[in-house]
Amino acid sequence: MAQAFDASAQQALLTHRAEGALAMAKRLGADAAEVGASVDQGIGVSVRQGEVETVELSRDQGIAITVYIGQRKGSASSSDASEASLQATVEKALSIARYTGEDPAAGLADAALMATDLPDLHVHHPWDLTTDQAIELALNCEQAGREVSGITQSDGASLSSGEGVRIYANSHGFIGTQKGSRHSLSCMLIAEDDKGMQRDMDYTSARDPRELADPATVGREAARRTLRRLGAKRPPTGTYPVLFDPSMASGLVGHLMGALAGGALYRQASFLCDRLNTPLFPDWFNLEERPMEVGATASSPFDGEGVQTRNNRFIEHGKIASYMLSSYSARRLGMTTTGNAGGARNMRITAPLSTQASLLEQMGTGVWVTELMGQGINGVTGDYSRGAAGFWVEKGVVQYPIEEFTIASNLERMFADLIGVGDDIDRRGSIHSGSWLIEGMTIAGH
């Protein structure tokens, strides 16, 4: 990287700024205040057809200040680290608060809930990577894919590596800081036959660069995934079982968590309002978050309000066991925060697991979805309709690739009709999931 990143020095600097902002807010008339600040540095390169396309060196910083005057709230932010800018930001937040209506739910999270267990979760693994080394890794990845017979073009390979520091502090006296890193490598390739062109990709992502997949492996997997899509047809229209590939199943968990989020619930904009302790999934299905998991993608000992994070079981034996609440949404609902300001962290499924082959066998005749397009999800009703691509399956055996079709159902029905979860777990993101087999969905093909 162009400039060394001293994470410990940045932690000390951000702490100093946050303490200064809190003191300034109090001096200027705030009853309470909270500060979030971060600084990040990274490198990103992209190559295409064996040539370097882009090289980006980035360094970003920001600070956001929220003040409370009684139960009036004002927020302002800046990317300027100067003392004058800090004062102007605090003054702007106070000005906004003075013109804002009172909100009975506004305010800091309760002081008694502030995190006290702040271990090092080993999420900071900087990569001493030069620009030339980054380019070489991306080129090797792309070249491995392009060398596979049948690949006609490349849509490029990209490598990104970054690290940063974030801090949250409030006038309860809480200060939490965390260093983190994220590294990834991806490749997208193109193949063509007499029916047209197809493209697909593969990627690897980790906090620790030593856990990334080998570049050549990523390139060859991108090629395999691309070639298997050649000769795609449209499937027949009807109602069939659907097997969601692991990365697609993770999206279903994301839709579930959106419906369990306090913001949607207090606005009455979720199909899961007033559903605590009611069945949603089969009784063998459990879903929880593990925010203190060492080295994981989204680990943090404190949430976006400084509240101690904890393992939360959202689905237990198929029933909705908990909502996902910040302090604000909890107050609006007459409940208690679940330590989820900023969302859920490290979602994990506990269920009997089956091989993908056995799930295909259970499916019999149906659709295996490997790609989804569009945003056809209605969070209020749970209605689900999206464009898709994948494979047609008969008697448990993949027959041919399919494209240009839609799958439709309702999320509540889909969750209830979950037949099995695969052991082919995708661990590259915050949500770890294997394949999901859903009993029946409407397929609109030809």
UniProtKB/TrEMBL annotation:
Residues 237-445 form the Metalloprotease TldD/E C-terminal domain. GO terms for cellular component: cytosol. Gene3D superfamilies: PmbA/TldD superfamily. It holds the Pfam family PmbA_TldD_1st. Residues 33-97 form the Metalloprotease TldD/E N-terminal domain. It comes from Vreelandella arcis. InterPro entries: Metalloprtase-TldD/E_C (IPR045569), Metalloprtase-TldD/E_cen_dom (IPR045570), Metalloprtase-TldD/E_N (IPR002510), PmbA (IPR047657), TldD/PmbA_N (IPR035068), TldD/PmbA_sf (IPR036059). PANTHER family: METALLOPROTEASE PMBA. This is PmbA protein. Residues 125-230 form the Metalloprotease TldD/E central domain. Belongs to the peptidase U62 family. GO terms for biological process: proteolysis. One of its GO terms (molecular function) is metallopeptidase activity.
